Amino acid sequence: MYSPSIGTESFRLVSVTIDSNRQPSLTLKKHEISSPTRPEYYALSYTWNPPYMGDPAYYEDTDVRYILLNGSKFAVKPNLYDALFQLHHSYPQMLFWIDALCINQNDLHERKLQVGIMDRIFGGASRVVVWLGKPSAKLELGLQVAERLASIASTACKAIVREQKYPHAHHLEEMRDAYGLDPLSFDEADALVTLFSCRWFGRQWVIQEVALAGQIDIICNEMSVPFDKVGSTALFLHLSGLLVGIGNLLVAGGRDMRLLEDMHLMQTGRTQIVREWCKGDRSEWRDVLPLIDFTAGIVENTVAVGERKEGIVGVVLLKLLMWLVGFDCGDRRDTIYGLAGIISHVVSVHGLDSIPQRLQPDYRLDTATVLHNAATEILQVTGSLALLGVVKDPALRETEGLPSWVPDYPPRMALNPMAGPNFKSLGKFDASKSINTARYGVDFHVDDKVLRARGFLLGRVKALGESLQPMVSGGNFAQCAAMLVEAEETYPFTNQLFAEAFWRTLVFDQDLSDRPAKLPTTKHFQDMVLMMIAKRISDEFKSGGSVGVEAFLQTLEAMDTLEAKHPKQSPFPTTKLLASFCSGFGFLPENGDDKVWSSGQQIAWMESKKKNLVFMFSLLSTTLFNRRPAITDGGYLACVFDSTMVDDEIWIVSGCPTPLVIRSKGQQYSLIGETGHAGPCKPNLSSTALVGTTSTEATISGSTEISIATSGDQSSTTDISSIVSESVSSTATSEPETSSTDLSSAISESIASTATTTTDSQFSSTTELSTSFITTETAITTTSAELSSIETLTTTTAEATTSDAPTTTTTTEESVLSGVFTNPSFEVPNSLGVYTGSPWALLDGDFPMSVSIKSGLGHTGSHSAYWSVTDTDSSGRIQQMAALEANQMYSLSFWWYIDSDVQPQGLNGCSVLILQRSGQSNLIPGTLDLSTTLPLKTWTKYDISFNSQTLTPAMMTFIVSCSGSAGTGLKLAIDDVDLVKQS
């Protein structure tokens, strides 16, 4: 039915009918796209996958339905199947362009050509029809509410941009006075969440489909709502701050905050801005769009290629990639190709002949090549290294073989680049302005997989503080306090008190409207810290009473040390102040003047802090997510990615607007990511010159090489480890029972609603005492663990460990690990031992028959427990047991290995369970899935810390289980299992 293939001057359209058997029957015909006799048509915009994330009422990703296409049976996704009935009902005589039907998806050459003319296809449609999924009463209400808010949304948004000030209207009651609107009801707020949780709003392909359309409407039963109304409403809720109020209202009404994590409201608002930008002079936003800096100060007509118009395409792509963060696509190449229609539009507007060769869609190229080509094009035509600010934390990178300086564009929402889109009133970052470019030039060039650049060393990381998640879930600031003990009372680089310099560093010294920040104060930060610690104290009291509270307070001695060195200047409370608070809420016995407060006093105390908590956290959640504070050996404060380690280097690189953290191995470097720092830079270009990158020339799967040239332009290479991907999820709290849990819930709700509704990150705070910290480590390749019920997931590399847990230690691939499998006296490893010094205690010798012991495979040369799929076996498990004491913290680590001759399609599942021997209770809820990605031929380490909880002393069972297809050669090895009771 697709013969012959079509090129760039033809396309296919379908007519939709429903036959007597209630089966869609479609007729597909080819048309010339520029023909004057081309018929009128509508284009359908929808999502291939289920319309809602994780809703059991809808179908699975793998489900299909069947239609008739030109008389032949044809499989389509269920969401498209449902849409066909709506299209036939709403537009019975209309022809449609539908990507899954009108493009031969199996013809890569045809896909390439058709993707390249998306601007003509969507621009030529009389209407673009958006299908969100099967209609529901709540979805219809959400569209009605969006229409109501749209009456003032566009005007209000333009006023905010024009004034360059965020109103921070975090309370729905402000809607009437500020905007003349009735405040949202609970049902209306809930319906808006349902609307913006539709997957369609988060699709990468949606961006160009919306941006290039003339008329575009969302249909739902008999409703038809212009996208401009929905897009403007999304932008209004974000810019005004009212989304925080929606979150607060829903939490107060009992809604699970995790529902807000699936919202695509941020993406919807950003898509609306791109649509207005593509409208050009037709846009009502044309006078305010220039007030938004999309490209870190890069001007479109000042590109490296001089006045050649071809350079504009690379600048536009940079603008889009910096603005459009966090959209999802099944094929990661579509991060670039999904914007091809907009790029073609730009080519047409500027009178160019074609898209630059490196940016033309070609699905014969692998993902790493596509992303590398795009990065190379952008760097070369802009003459700027601003793109490096889009590079994410190594823990979020997933594409194998990608140089460290090439952005991987993770699909989940991540941080805005520091030098990325913002109000122009903020000014722009320009860390390298102190480099004399007249003398040295902006000297960088791309040499295949190697980026060579010039810069100077600002300092080496000396100490690190906690990242945002431990602060929120655990009220943990001990590392931050210990880091600041060495600081001078006056921060020498800005002449500010160190407490002020500290919080300004964490928020990049901006308040979303001004830089330097004008609205927040040190008091805002102190109140936020106090409220987060108060939440942790409340949780400790709930689980362990006053004894637990006292034990927690003893862990905060670094805060007292900091206060003793700098009286009344510390950003953190003392344990004396916290003890007084604890007495006031009944967490500790009354002591002298410290009495229990009345309920009115308790509420007044919380209300006095809550506003500062919400405001300061709304700033931190846009800057500190996946970041942590650091201090260099020269005393600079910095805000770095979570994967940063002590001795990593911070460089100022010519042409890059932000400082960069790079990791050195001799004369070789890998880019970790951008960083904010407090204070001026003093360049010394004689120090050395180049940021190194990775290469894919190594023959070992998943390994990478780094190359760097010194000022003498010498180069060398070495292998480094890739860094694992990260997932963060959280759990919900139970209903409050006492005043102490009321405090914890109140603080948690404020933090959770603020974090979930104000950041570009899919993030929500935890509200229970943390019992699990999961650390994954990989020696060579990339792996990930999708943990739906674990509160915190931190990451490490084989070079070192990055974790906020105080008992986590640095581990290297070369180090000799202590564990039952490394003991040479164990001919057959048969148990876990609880390590209390020496020796190990052997507790159980029970192993399944499917496990054998092989030498030569061991991670450190030892024997391994080894399991393989034979011609008849298809499943099995490795099981070991150990005794646990009640209410203790334990660290469990092990290495696992998939042998070299495995066929990836043979692995059905590989998982870890840690539970009581009785099987009645999991010590870590859920199952740890080891097979999200399949690292072959590499030892991958898992470090898991957990609380044995209030169980009676019992045997713990540690199980690694596998299932695969018989005869596929699947082989699993487990080595160096180590169980340690933390002191």
Write structural notes for this entry.
- The protein has 983 residues and is an alpha+beta fold.
- Among the domains are: 10-131, no CATH class; 137-204 and 227-292, no CATH class; 468-625 and 735-748, no CATH class; 772-981, Jelly Rolls, CATH 2.60.120.
- The strands form 8 sheets. The chain has a 9-stranded mixed beta sheet, sandwiched between helices. Strands 26, 27, 28, 29, 30, 32, 35 and 37 form an 8-stranded mixed beta sheet that branches.
- The protein is globular and about 90 Å long.
Give the DSSP E fraction (strand runs of 2 or more residues).
15-25%
What is the strand arrangement across the widest sheet?
5-4-2-1-6-3-7-8-9
CATH superfamily of the domain at 772-981: Galactose-binding domain-like
Instruction: Please give the CATH class of the domain at 772-981.
Output: Mainly Beta
* Termini Cα gap: 69 Å
SSE-based structural type: alpha+beta
Rg (C-alpha, Å): 29 Å
Number of strands: 37
- CATH architecture of the domain at 772-981, by name, is Sandwich
- In the predicted model, the low-confidence regions spanning at least 5 consecutive residues are 299-307, 681-741, 757-876, 900-905
